[in-house]
Amino acid sequence: MSTLRQAVVAGRFYPDDPSLLQASVVRYLAAGRRKHVPIGSRPKAIIVPHAGYEFSGPIAGTAYAQLQTIADSVQRVVLLGPAHHVGFSGLAVSTASYFETPLGEIPIDTECVGRLLELPQVVLFDEAHAAEHSLEVQLPFLQVTLRRDFLLAPLVVGRAGAAEVAEALEAVWDGSETLLVISSDLSHYHDYATARVVDQETSRFIETLQPDKLCGQRACGYAGIRGLLEQVKRRGLQMTTLDVRNSGDTSGSRDQVVGYGAYVVHA
Length: 267
Fold this sequence. Notes:
By secondary structure, the chain is an alpha/beta fold. Helices cover 37% and strands 24% of the residues. Strands 2, 3, 4, 7, 8, 9, 10, 11 and 12 form a 9-stranded mixed beta sheet that branches.
């Protein structure tokens, strides 16, 4: 029996009206293309923020804009985001057959999820997905950016080491048909000047592949990023920083800001 993971943050983190949502994502992608950073090779993975679109949408757009050259060929998206509501060990997949947004339903890649469930650190745990926004806010960007139907393998990351996440990514890395998306914001609730310093330093750690330097104070999705960096090192790939800003840049309020970064993995 098919089950649906319904959208729970539509109308709060992003518009719940399909036309307004489509238009907002298109606007962020267009701005991202204007900031385009040439990387000279095919993207394999991106790291993107997951706050409300008014705050992090412009930064997310710079990452998703990098996918325009591969949009027709991506068949599967493996999406990892940190748990904000439920504590658990390992990585959680869902029993749902589809994930919903106002733009439609995305089918789950059951074969890919099956491979992940062969790993001891991956569990079926719907409660981790029920209220989680870190995955959901990425879905409209993917629906607009990828110009073909795609399958989704969503993972909420709980208490997991870099090796555990890297092993899960290894199991589903596959070829050019598979895109990896890691959802994470950067620092939280510093003043504007401090946040800029901290986030630039975190970006250097990410770009120079130093996973051990990352922690929850630097990036809420640090566990997913650390696992990705292990794979990037192992495979001899590169990580390029595309955009680093914070909510002070996008909202105008420069007190107690949240940092956002966009990054791409490529050959």
